[in-house]
Amino acid sequence: MDEEKKQYPITGEIVGALDRVNALNGLRDRYIKLRFLGYRLAKRAAIEAETTRCELWEMVYALYPEIRGKKLTLNRSTMLVEEVS
Asked: Using H for helix, E for strand and C for coil, what is the string for the chain?
């Protein structure tokens, strides 16, 4: 009795926000290895990544309010949000 996962298409704006989060996380990882200013820059990148991630999910919930509170995963390659069972 394998139940099919529900899938919801997402917009290019949401995919762009996801790309931004991934880029900021990469910057954070690189900045932390730098001496002197690395910590400050890594902290700034981490805060901006988290803020963008929250905005991204708010855009998803605005598009599909019925999925709020469910376990979800965002697939960039297929441009879908999928429910996780």
From this structure: CCCCCCEEECCHHHHHHHHHHHHHHHHHHHHCCCCCCHHHHHHHHHHHHHHHHHHHHHHHHHHCHHHCCCCEEEECCCCEEEECC
